[in-house]
Here is the input.
Amino acid sequence: MNAWLNRLLADLATLFGLDAAGRLQPIPLESDERRRLAEERARRR
Here is the structure.
């Protein structure tokens, strides 16, 4: 029971951003330059 509670609290801390180490992956954001290059490549085809 104690291990389960510790795991739950660790998961909640990660969920709410209280855990600096966090196991969540960053969300990749597409830059304007990459989007422009992709559109240019699509136009060439």
In short: Residues 2-15 form the longest helix (14 residues). The mean pLDDT is 83. Helices lie at 2-15, 32-44.
